[in-house]
Amino acid sequence: MRILVTGGAGFIGSHVVDALLESAAHEVVVLDSLTASAHPSGPDYLDERAWLMVGDVADEEAVAQAIRGVDAVCHQAAKVGLGLDVLDIADYVRDNDLGTAVLLRALARARFGGRLVLASSMVVYGEGGYSCPTHGPVAAPARAVEDLEAGRFEPACPVCGAALVAVAVPESARLDPRNVYAATKLQQEHLCFAWSRETGVPVTALRYHNVYGPRMPRDTPYAGVASIFASAIAAGVPPRVFEDGRQMRDFVHVRDVARANVLALTRDLPVAGAFNVCSGTPRTVGEMAVALCDAAGPGAPSPVVTGRYRLGDVRHVFASPERATAELGFAAQEDFAAGMAEFMRAPIAEFTRAPFPIS
Fold this sequence. Notes:
By secondary structure, the protein is of the alpha/beta class. The chain has helices spanning 11-21, 60-66, 89-109, 145-149, 180-199, 225-234, 254-266, 285-296, 322-328, 336-345, and strands at 2-6, 27-32, 51-54, 72-75, 115-121, 129-132, 136-138, 165-167, 203-208, 210-212, 240-241, 248-249, 251-253, 273-277, 283-284, 304-305. It contains 10 helices and 16 strands. A 7-stranded parallel sheet has the order 3-2-1-4-5-9-14, sandwiched between helices. A 3-stranded antiparallel sheet has the order 7-6-8, with no helix packed on it. β1 (2-6), α1 and β2 form a beta-alpha-beta unit. α6 runs parallel beside α8 and α8 (285-296) crosses α10 (336-345). The protein is globular and about 55 Å long. The chain starts with a strand and ends in a 14-residue tail after the last helix. The relative contact order is 0.17.
């Protein structure tokens, strides 16, 4: 198969490229803009067997060249994270939603008949799943600023005000994006599934949970929490944990995420729809910070719980992996402690290779 990976020089995309190239059966084309926000130093790790095209997924000419002759598309290119502030809104919409629309139109014009795998995110859920002891499953309301200021971080039942119990979220859960990035990721899903209905091309949307591992960007406003903590620890500074550190997430290793993509791209029959890509074992953000400090060894600083908050954050969100296991055959394999130790040791990459010409 000839497979296009957009964003294939990035953190997750490059691991997808590696996993695809483990099989001699696949030829991989990478389209990546190498934007400075994702590549402060530029990556030096992209497999030299991949055909790299430097171009923007929102550039129609670049996309038209990149899709030529491909059998499948793995769409990883996106601006990620909460960014700096709401002034980033147009950049997120351009990179994530306009870029996706340009790609879809190019595929339709080319009468593409393969399959499309979309990198989606758990952020489309907003808050995760909750249950009230009295009222059963309920949707947690958006957290009020006055509650957060007072250190009341746990959402309450919207009916009776009782404390809620966090539960694993299935793919069928209500979708409720609560920040700009989340809104653009949900729109990517809507665009892809609408395009699929029009063209008949199957789309698999992989809703990644908190991905970590080697090559994760550091020291940028768009880095994930694991990367922010690792950068602080490497500088000898205690990682600063927001809220009370008890907010729960599912931390999934990037190699597991890459395997999920390969399964979706190469299985005999495509499986359409949305799938959680997660470890299936929720952990608190505080636990993750401790694991990184432990991995850094003696003399590493200990986490500091600040009580601060970000309004765009949610309290708990972790997932059920059951559908991905049953329909994609995916189950996470990487060990959490070993993965965190590997992540702490991982170097920051440099970009050294030139692109191949695309013909």
